[in-house]
Amino acid sequence: MSSTAHGTTPYYFVPQPSRHPVMASIGLFFVILGAGQWINGEEWGMYSLMFGMVWWLTVLFQWFSEAIQESESGQYGYKVDLSYRWSMTWFIFSEVMFFGAFFSALWWARMHSLPALGSLENALIWPDFKAVWPTLAAGATASPAGIVEPFQAMTPFWLPTVNTALLLTSGVTLTIAHHALQLGERSKTIKFMWMTVLLGVIFLFVQGYEYAHAWSDMNLKLSSGVYGSTFYMLTGFHGFHVFVGMLMLLFVTLRLQKGHFTAEKHFGFEGAAWYWHFVDVVWLGLYILVYWL
After folding, report:
1. Residue 108 reports pLDDT greater than 70
2. Which of 284, 280, 255, 258 is nearest to 267 (CA)?
3. Comparing 113-122, 149-158, 200-209, which segment has the lowest mean pLDDT?
């Protein structure tokens, strides 16, 4: 039921029908449409992307505000807390499958497709083709058919290594903030949360600089064969998840400053922390498989 006669926490809170899921989907539609058109040379795609992002963020702000108001008014009891925990667990599991698909594509390209293209049959068609992954041999990045421009492969030095240090440090500061909240040390929690948010922002700026350097100086683009497409798909989607996680942590920090959350009840904090640690783990996989191997 959604309310009680005496104003106590209901057994289970049933929210009213909401417009937010549909409105958020509209914003994401324009984001994906704009991004797809922009990278294919359509100038209007940039404006569609920006419009979609503003729309989507506005909907999220309204949606989060309503959920926070419901929580702070005492509508969320044990059952809702449990449902949130299960929901976040399944959401992160779906993200594991999402990135697992892209890691599998990278593995399949390297371990199966590339050796097959270097077989004797294909050697008769493309005698100059080298069945070597671009990170393992210099000069093996050009297309024998001339459809892929020569490019340089990414290395772990130094921007990816700097970003690894940033994310690992952010995981430590977030853990310190969580323990401080459990001990009731709100000021310490807020300080380390702001540090975590700042580290996330710096990570995004470093990755943006890395992309600009790769695109303009190394000629590494989405059109740079399977290496370029898997590189940008994996690192790009991870960067988007860092952005979303940073927003989560930012909202949590602002709520902490308003006095929200207690040492006993703070799943909003914990859910964002789960997500951020997941982002950290994915980056470690990227750092090793994409940049080092």
Report:
1. yes
2. 255
3. 113-122
Burial class (CB in 10 A: 0-12, 13-18, 19+), 145: exposed
CB atoms closer than 10 angstroms to residue 35: 18
- The pLDDT tens digits for 68-80 are 888 888 888 888 8
Answer whether 110's CB lies under 8 Å from 137's CB: no
Q: Which residues contact 144 (CB under 8 A, 6 or more apart)?
A: 126, 127, 128, 129
User: What are the phi and psi torsion angles at 73 (to 5°)?
Assistant: -85, 5
Q: In which residue are the tokens 């904090």 written?
A: 269
| 226-236: b (≥16 Cβ within 10 Å) or e | bbbbbbbebbe
Alpha-carbon Rg for the chain, nearest whole angstrom, is 23
DSSP character for 152? P
Q: pTM of this prediction? A: 0.83
> What pLDDT does 139 receive?
57
Assign 3-class secondary structure to 207-257.
Answer: HHHHHHHHHHCCCCCCCCHHHHHHHHHHHHHHHHHHHHHHHHHHHHHHHHH
Cβ(159)–Cβ(209) below 8 Å: yes
* Residue 201 near residue 239 (C-beta atoms within 8 A): no
* Token pair of 63 as six digits: 């949606």
pLDDT band, residue 8 (cuts 50/70/90): low
Length reported for the chain: 293
Q: How many other CB atoms sit within 10 Å of the CB of residue 134?
A: 22
